[in-house]
Amino acid sequence: MQFRRALIIRFGGMGDILLATPCIRALADAFPGIEIDFVVGGGMSESLTGNPLVRRVLVFDKRGVDSRLDHFAPFLWRLSREKYDLVVNLHPSAKSFLMAWATGAKTRVTFSKQMGVDPSTGRVAHAIDDFTKELRALGIAEVPDRHMDFVVPDAARESLSVKLRALGWREDAQLLVINPAASRPINRWPLDRFQALAAHFAAMPNCLVMVTGAPRSFLTVMDGLDEVSLAAAVAGADARIVDLAGKLTVKELGALLERANTFLTCDTGPMHIGSAVGAPMVVLSGAADPDRTGPVGEDATVLIDRTLSCVPCRDRTCARGDVMCMQNLSVENVIAAVTERLAWSVRRNRGRRLPMVS
Predict the structure, then answer these.
(1) CA 72 to CA 69: how far, in whole Å?
(2) What is the pLDDT of residues 120-170, one digit of tens each?
């Protein structure tokens, strides 16, 4: 079995797409010379740009104008002209089924989500493994390399360096990056706790605290604040905290997380970028199941209160109504985890810190 040209379909957020990148690598390894195109949702192209294994990133905004027949029909026609012989549909839906059909590909593999608990481990399958299991139908029995791919171009590192220099960045400082937002309310840690933690580390000598967040156009709201306003509220806890919300491109965020000694985040898109670039992380989890969507590798500490019978519920809303899973994560415990991860990062990076790009 040999394939010449493949199309992968996966909509969703940044994390959803990055979790599918091991599939790209597995296909490229199994079928040398294969050309892979990837369909993503609106605003998500930066998740894959620069990936040398992806020939083209095709953007289809299924919630926008692309869903209209006068836009969708030409998109299907363009797919029909590409002569794909393989489609891997990782986002089953009416639109993705039509895309797969339009290609005329003789081999079409469709993702079937498996959320059952493995009795031998007591855990659900990680999303990476759930996606890659579909490749068995293509003769790919095992995907030993589970890391996600996010390419940070040199141009992003250079532009980030300019911004950091303007902010008085010192290379000898320990860098703590905080991302206080999460797209789902159930995944969020309270604002006042982020403020207390950020102020604690900002007061430490030789520690630089930076807060990130998406531009207002993303309209993610927490405690009545969009991400830019939320980051400003966290940064307002201490004048030494640097507010970068809305000031970085997606690729510059990746470059920043490459440099971070520790990245504090909830389960959200930037967490997956941090995991992909190897950032040391402290992840605050409750409803989100780290066994399913959490970071892989030794670079992350996941804090989750499993004493609650409902944790992790993997739901979009809290049945209890109090989001106690996140409330139970105390400031003191998170400070301890961040302190330990900062020390671990310093030991790991001794002698190999990324230089500033000139």
Answers:
(1) 5
(2) 788 899 999 999 999 999 999 888 889 999 999 999 999 999 999 888 778
Phi, psi angle pair for 17, to nearest 5°: -75, -45
Burial class (CB within 10 angstroms; exposed 0-12, middle 13-18, buried 19+) of 266:
buried
Which pair of structure tokens corresponds to residue 128? 């990476």
- Alpha-carbon distance 356 to 344, whole Å? 21
Beta strand pairing call for 207-211 and 174-179: parallel
Tell me how crowded residue 77 is: count the other CB atoms within 10 A of its CB: 10
Query: pLDDT tens digits, residue range 196-234?
Result: 999 999 999 989 999 999 875 554 554 556 889 999 999
Q: Is the four-CA dihedral 194, 171, 341, 215 of positive or negative sign?
A: positive
Residue 270, helix vs strand vs coil: helix
Question: What DSSP string runs through 182-223?
Answer: -SSGGGPPPHHHHHHHHHHHHTSTTEEEEE----GGG--EET
Length of the chain: 358
- 40, with CB counted inside 10 A (0-12, 13-18, 19+), is buried
Cα dihedral: 219, 222, 228, 232 (round 10): 170
Read off φ and ψ for residue 227, nearest 5 degrees: -65, -35
